[in-house]
């Protein structure tokens, strides 16, 4: 009986040993397969890298770009990536890293360059990098850059030059002369801003600029917007009865007395919505937001306009009906 039990224990031990050995063998086989696969991937990557003369990095392109950015600006942004990676004298190692299909760190470094150095080139147009990735096309490697871009809100006029400003009051690259203003006629001009302008990528800290941008957003898309040449913010923060804080300069060289900045509540002025109603009513009746007069004052409960022979305002009904 004891001999039988010993024999059974021995057989059980042998089976356990065989199973353990079999498990070890399987683990070794799996490990060998993993090492073989890794070695194959490594050989493929090295072969791809060695074949770079046949599949070189030929292009760095900006993708999913907005329609309002010109091809020249987008090309400049792509060339900035080339200058930073391939022709960077301070970091010559970047040239090899950008061509290495296994190197992802250089793509992150390039992303940070765009957002942390807005003063360089046209970088200030970029608000946020969505991704930078490699794409393999037949016989070439392409770096694709997808970004969110700042949207221009208006032009700031200073010392006979015009500077683009974004919706968040960030100065965008470039400056324009009066002769170039016509090419940007779809943007309002904000004038009366004290200089000098900030560097590209920096914020216009002036409350007057912020007020002008808010009003530009409100007026954009209105049916009479094309009749507004500029938003004069020279007196923002200095209200008076005779001189409004904000005045709209029309293309007819007349003025609309707007008054306080949008969003500011005052006992002495009607709110923004009422002023917009006034402008709509005037435009519908006269097809000109100035009603053909030297100025129109929108600040009070009644619209103020001068008669044709007057230079000082007289009261008119809110409807409005203007004297002949």
Q: What is the residue-averaged pLDDT?
A: 84
For this entry, what is the oligomeric state of its chains? single chain
Q: Report the radius of gyration as a whole number of Å.
A: 34 Å
CATH architecture of the largest domain: 3-Layer(aba) Sandwich
Distance between the termini: 131 Å
Shape assignment:
elongated
CATH topology of the largest domain: Rossmann fold
**Number of helical segments?**
6
Overall CATH class of the largest domain: Alpha Beta
Secondary-structure-based class equals alpha/beta
Order of helices and strands: HEHHHEEEEEHEEEHEEE
Helix content bin: 25-40%
The neighbouring-strand order within the major sheet is: 5-4-6-7-8-9-10
How many E-type strands? 12
Strand content: 15-25%
Unreliable stretches covering 5 or more consecutive residues: 312-324
Biggest β-sheet description: 7 strands, mixed
Count of folded domains: 2
Q: What does this protein structure show overall?
A:
- The chain is an alpha/beta fold.
- It folds into two domains: 57-149; 152-315, 3-Layer(aba) Sandwich (Rossmann fold).
- The protein contains six helices and twelve strands.
- It has helices spanning 2-50, 71-85, 94-99, 105-116, 207-219, 272-286, and strands spanning 57-63, 126-137, 140-149, 152-158, 161-166, 188-191, 228-232, 246-250, 255-259, 295-297, 304-305, 314-315.
- The strands form three sheets. A seven-stranded mixed beta sheet has the order 5-4-6-7-8-9-10, covered by helices on one side.
- Helix 6 links the parallel strand 9 and strand 10 (295-297).
- The longest helix is centred in the first third of the chain and has 49 residues, at 2-50.
- It is elongated and about 115 Å long.
- The protein starts with a helix and ends in a 9-residue tail after the last strand.
């Amino acid at each position: 009986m004891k001999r039988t039990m010993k024999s059974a224990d021995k057989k059980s031990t042998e089976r356990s040993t065989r199973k353990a050995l079999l498990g070890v063998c399987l683990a070794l086989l799996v490990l060998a397969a993993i090492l073989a696969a890794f070695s194959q991937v490594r050989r493929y990557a090295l072969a791809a890298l060695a074949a770079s003369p046949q599949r070189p990095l030929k292009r760095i392109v900006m993708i999913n770009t907005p329609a309002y950015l010109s091809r020249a600006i987008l090309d400049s942004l792509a060339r900035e990536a080339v200058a930073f990676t391939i022709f960077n004298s301070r970091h010559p190692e970047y040239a090899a890293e950008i061509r290495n299909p296994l190197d992802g760190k250089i793509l992150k470094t390039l992303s940070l360059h765009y957002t942390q150095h807005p003063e360089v080139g046209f970088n200030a147009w970029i608000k946020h990098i969505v991704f930078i990735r490699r794409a393999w096309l037949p016989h070439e490697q392409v770096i694709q850059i997808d970004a969110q871009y700042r949207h221009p809100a208006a032009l700031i006029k200073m010392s006979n030059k015009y500077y683009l400003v974004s919706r968040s009051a960030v100065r965008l690259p470039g400056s324009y002369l009066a002769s170039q203003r016509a090419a940007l006629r779809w943007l309002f001009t904000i004038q009366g801003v004290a200089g000098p302008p900030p560097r590209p990528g920096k914020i216009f800290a002036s409350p007057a600029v912020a007020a002008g941008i808010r009003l530009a957003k409100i007026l954009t898309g209105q049916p009479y917007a094309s009749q507004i040449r500029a938003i004069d913010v020279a007196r923002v923060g200095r209200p008076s009865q005779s001189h409004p804080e904000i005045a709209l300069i029309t293309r007819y060289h007349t003025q609309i007395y707007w008054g306080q900045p949008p969003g500011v509540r005052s006992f002495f002025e009607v709110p923004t919505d009422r002023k917009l109603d006034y402008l709509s009513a005037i435009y519908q009746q006269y097809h000109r937001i100035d009603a053909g007069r030297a100025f129109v004052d929108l600040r009070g409960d009644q619209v103020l306009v001068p008669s044709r022979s007057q230079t000082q305002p007289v009261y008119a009904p809110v409807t409005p009906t203007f004297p002949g």
